[in-house]
Amino acid sequence: MIDTLVDTGFPVKVCCCKLGVSSPGYYKYRKRPLSPTQMRRQWLTGLIREVHNASRGTYGSRRVHAELTLALDVQASEHLVAVLMHNTGIHGLPEPVRIKRSRGVATTTGIQDRLDNAMMESFWSSMQIELLNRKRWKTRIDLANAIFEYIEIFHNR
Q1: Is the model's pTM score more than 0.85?
Q2: What's the pLDDT tens digit per position in 12-54?
Q3: What is the percentage of the chain residues whose pLDDT exceeds 90?
Q4: By the 8 A CB rule, do 76 and 44 touch?
């Protein structure tokens, strides 16, 4: 807190006096090395930034956590990832609004077709949010190239 006040222009002695902290104690605190927990959190924040940037800024805390634990084999709780992302101002795209349907389509194969359709709808929803809603393209060729790049390079990596 004192660091924040000093950064805004208040003298260290005034801040320490108002908060009931001795000036030598404050300077000793500042020179203290980082604790192992603080070092790990800084390292983890760097990894979170890398994963978030690799996702083109689309992943939220749940998907970043999944990427860290499953792909990079880094052990961290989903809550810690969410807290670190919040503290550093990293945000994913909002989740899609689920479309509720009152009735399914009756088919000869029944449930299997509905599950196949659900997977495609999920993919199209993700592409809509992660690619199509974020930018406008000047030509159809630019749009086609962006879709190709999203599917082949980003989605299938």
Answers
A1: no
A2: 888 888 889 898 988 888 889 989 999 999 999 999 999 999 9
A3: 36
A4: yes
Burial of residue 48 (number of CB atoms within 10 Å: 0-12, 13-18, 19+)? buried
C-alpha closest to that of 126 among 91, 88, 98, 87: 98
Question: CA dist 129 to 1, 41, 115, 126, 134, Å?
Answer: 39, 30, 21, 5, 7
What's the start-to-end Cα distance of the chain, in Å? 43
Given this model, what pLDDT does residue 65 score?
95
Both tokens assigned to 148 = 């190709």
Please list, residue by residue across 78-94, b when 16 or more beta carbons sit within 10 angstroms of its beta carbon and e when fewer do. Answer: eeebbebbeeeebebbe
Residues 6+ apart with CB under 8 A from 126: 96, 155
